[in-house]
Amino acid sequence: MDKFFKEAINQAKKGLSEGGIPIGSVIVFDGKILGKGHNKRVQKGSVILHGEMDAFENAGRQNAKTYQQSTIYTTLSPCPMCTGAILLYGIPRVVIGENKTFMGAEDLLRKHGVEVIVLNDETCIKMMEDFIKNKPELWNEDIGE
After folding, report:
1. Cβ atoms of 99 and 106 closer than 8 Å
2. Which residues are catalytic?
3. Of the residues 76, 119, 132, 145, which has the maximum number of CB atoms within 10 A of its CB?
4. Cα separation of 66 and 56, whole Å?
5. pLDDT for 140
6. What are the residue ranges in the chain where pLDDT is below 70?
């Protein structure tokens, strides 16, 4: 397993251990982690701190060329908000842990020329399936079902 994807999973597990939603993300440039994060909607009472958004926040201000040469790893298919941030900063490659429990805006990423790699990783799938089963009220709050 890729060490950066492994760190995204570690971030998701960290979020779960904090009582939050188990989604983690890592932004990588030139073989180094620029920023990592996990969904903090519950922990911070935030409507925007999804895993990818937290990773962007923790990466901080970078010049455009840095983001345009980066890869973002995320344990779950990115929602439209996170997809928008990926497109805004010109990240060319997204590695997704799974899209079985939630299909995000992958078609929009591809439409804009982003390379999208879906791993359908069993760890990610099981983590989200268990979370959705055990905490449907939290999942449905964000997803809107």
Report:
1. yes
2. 52
3. 76
4. 12
5. 84
6. 1, 143-145
